[in-house]
């Protein structure tokens, strides 16, 4: 389909056309139909949200159906696919499923496929998975032409997605072409679909479960949020007054701070790629001057208020008492297949945060929050995937003695059998180890530890000597092979068989991180599926990193925690991995207490 196809596109604009659409959909031999929606916006949870068009297509053409006139026809088409076992192919099924659900239509997930998922599980780790970009790479510029025409016209006329006229031809044309290129991708990737069917099935099951979490929503404590917003605003005002004494009236910007620090004789050596003075959090924490520390405090307090507290309060309807917010859970957002959370970005919360987590509560007064987290999963996967015997031994010693892994590292790295958890060097070890695992350099590790780069060099080198995988970054496991187009690709495989690959040699060193993060993501997704099968589906509220949140009746929670741990622990048993990867459940009145 590299040349511009002669697509037959129709709009269902009169009752007589229903028979034609139905004959097209149900024609003998149909194996799949691609589907898409055009809506008033992205906020499917809003009372004003509605579907404007539903589109069905294949590689020869398709139909645009004005939804408000024909909701039962659309529902009937989807139900026919379910009964006939015809695949319904989306590109981003997660969103379209919520759009249909808002209109009272439930998808049969057993016939759903998703080309965005196929791209993720079989493509390159650094590949853009947007439909237009994928299809233009596969088929040429024509695949994106409809979008360019549509957006240009909407901009000229001042139309939004909510009011662009249904009768304006580029609108339904754009919508149907999306289904046609989705269909073309699905057909072209027949080999991918055969090879990665198991991975696709896991991702579709995960989307089904996380969509349920989004739909049910997360309960929030509006009174607590209101008080915290007020307290954070007061603290910001207080810090602003202190910064004003240094001539800093806008602590969100760097200009006044740079002048104040230079005036005080502070050397500012950190630079951005463009050569400007860098004054981010990692830099500021190392500057021993009140203006730097006050600015850092202000930015942290302001971020917590705006990005989290106010965002959660608004998303919960700005209501006092118990509210409900509907987060966005993107099950394949990261290159690694890791899930992310938006509205607000809860996966970015530091693990030791107590403030925002206290706002997440049980669904009613008789329920508590249960949190179950896979402890140190990335570290344990790293040690076993790259067969670092010294690291495996240290982890096993910590498990056997009930001790701390980073204490065991300290004993080895510093040659001190009496190394203890309170030793300040434990922070250096932890920061360095995780910087290595997450693909960061020594500057990142130093910033996290709150020390200068040169202060961290001995620890950095000693760790590399003691644990070879932290020096090689798993490069011994990366394979380079030829591609069908005559190029090369660099590949590493997860213990579950999923591949992570890049074409750019400069990206090669990131593959160690990709495979560990990607494997941890697979473990969590398998855990969600197992928990759903065990009857915890409606109780699950949110997945964050390697953690799952539940709302459970107080009386049932202790027994449920035992079953939750057993279910999660069954995903990657010690006899398979060679190391224990254990879920660690906790419970409390809110997320902070449960963690």
Protein described:
It is globular and about 85 Å long. It has 24 helices and 17 strands. Helices cover 48% and strands 15% of the residues. The strands form five sheets. Strands 1-4-3-2-5-6 form a six-stranded mixed sheet, with helices on both faces. A four-stranded antiparallel sheet has the order 15-16-11-17. The longest helix is centred in the middle third of the chain and has 26 residues, at 290-315. It is of the alpha+beta class. The protein folds into four domains: 8-195, Ribonuclease H-like superfamily/Ribonuclease H (Nucleotidyltransferase, domain 5, 2-Layer Sandwich), CATH 3.30.420.10; 219-325, Up-down Bundle (Taq DNA Polymerase, Chain T, domain 4); 371-378 and 516-594, Alpha-Beta Plaits; 385-514, no CATH class.
List the helices and strands and how they pair.
Blueprint: E1 8-11, H1 17-25, E2 32-39, E3 51-58, E4 61-66, H2 71-84, E5 87-90, H3 93-102, E6 112-114, H4 115-122, H5 131-139, H6 145-157, H7 170-188, H8 190-195, H9 197-216, E7 218-221, H10 222-244, H11 255-263, H12 281-284, H13 290-315, E8 322-325, E9 328-330, E10 340-342, E11 367-374, H14 377-385, H15 389-401, H16 405-413, H17 425-437, H18 442-449, H19 453-466, H20 469-472, E12 479-482, E13 488-493, E14 499-502, H21 511-536, E15 540-544, E16 547-553, H22 557-569, H23 574-577, E17 583-588, H24 591-594
Parallel strand pairs: 1-4, 2-5, 5-6
Antiparallel strand pairs: 2-3, 3-4, 7-8, 9-10, 11-16, 11-17, 12-13, 13-14, 15-16
């Amino acid at each position: 389909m590299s040349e511009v196809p002669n697509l037959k596109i129709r709009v269902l604009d009169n009752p007589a056309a229903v028979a034609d659409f139905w004959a097209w959909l149900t024609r003998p031999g149909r194996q799949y139909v691609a589907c898409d929606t055009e809506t008033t916006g992205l906020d499917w949870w809003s009372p004003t949200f509605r579907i404007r068009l539903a589109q069905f297509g294949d590689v020869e053409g398709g139909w645009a159906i004005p939804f408000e006139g024909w909701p039962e026809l659309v529902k009937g088409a989807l139900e026919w696919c379910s009964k006939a076992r015809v695949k319904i192919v989306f590109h981003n099924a997660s969103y379209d499923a919520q759009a249909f659900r808002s209109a009272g239509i439930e998808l049969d997930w057993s016939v759903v496929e998703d080309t965005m998922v196929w791209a993720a599980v079989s493509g390159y780790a650094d590949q853009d998975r947007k439909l237009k970009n994928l299809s233009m790479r596969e088929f040429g510029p024509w695949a994106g032409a409809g979008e360019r025409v549509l957006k240009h016209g909407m901009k000229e006329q001042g139309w939004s997605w909510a009011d662009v006229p249904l009768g304006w031809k580029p609108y339904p044309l754009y919508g149907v072409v999306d289904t046609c290129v989705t269909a073309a991708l699905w057909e072209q990737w027949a080999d991918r679909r055969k090879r990665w069917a198991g991975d696709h099935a896991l991702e579709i099951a995960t989307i089904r479960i996380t969509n349920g979490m989004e739909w049910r929503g997360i309960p929030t404590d509006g009174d607590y949020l209101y008080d915290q917003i007020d307290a954070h605003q007061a603290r910001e005002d207080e810090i602003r007054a202190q910064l004003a004494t240094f001539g800093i009236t806008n602590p969100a910007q760097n200009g006044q701070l740079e002048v104040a620090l230079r005036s005080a004789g502070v050397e500012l050596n950190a630079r951005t790629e463009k050569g400007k003075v860098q004054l981010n959090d990692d830099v500021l924490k190392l500057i021993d001057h009140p203006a730097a520390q006050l600015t850092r405090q202000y930015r942290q307090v302001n971020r917590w208020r705006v990005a989290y507290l106010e965002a959660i309060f608004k998303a919960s309807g700005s209501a006092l008492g118990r509210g409900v917010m509907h987060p966005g859970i993107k099950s394949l957002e990261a290159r690694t297949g890791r899930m992310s959370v938006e509205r607000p970005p809860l996966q970015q919360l530091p693990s030791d945060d107590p403030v925002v987590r206290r706002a997440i509560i049980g669904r009613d007064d008789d329920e508590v929050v249960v949190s179950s987290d896979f402890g140190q999963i990335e570290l344990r996967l790293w040690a076993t995937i790259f067969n670092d015997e010294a690291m495996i031994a240290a982890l096993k010693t910590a498990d056997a003695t009930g001790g701390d892994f980073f204490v065991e590292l300290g004993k080895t790295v510093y040659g001190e059998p009496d190394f203890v958890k309170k030793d300040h060097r434990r922070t250096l070890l932890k920061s360095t180890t995780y910087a290595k695992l997450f693909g960061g350099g020594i500057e990142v590790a130093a910033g996290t530890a709150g020390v200068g780069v040169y202060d961290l060099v001995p620890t950095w080198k000693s760790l590399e000597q003691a644990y070879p995988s932290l020096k090689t970054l798993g490069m011994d496991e990366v394979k380079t092979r030829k591609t069908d187009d005559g190029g090369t690709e660099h590949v590493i495989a997860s213990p579950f068989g999923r591949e992570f690959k890049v074409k750019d040699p400069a990206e090669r060193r990131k593959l160690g991180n990709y495979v560990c993060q990607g494997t941890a993501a697979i473990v969590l997704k398998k855990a969600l599926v197992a928990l759903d099968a065990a009857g915890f589906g409606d109780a699950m509220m949110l997945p964050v990193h390697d953690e799952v949140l539940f709302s459970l009746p107080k009386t049932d929670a202790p027994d449920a925690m035992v079953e939750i741990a057993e279910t999660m622990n069954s995903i990657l048993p010690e006899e398979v991995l060679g190391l224990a990867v254990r879920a660690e459940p906790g419970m409390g009145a809110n997320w902070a207490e449960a963690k």
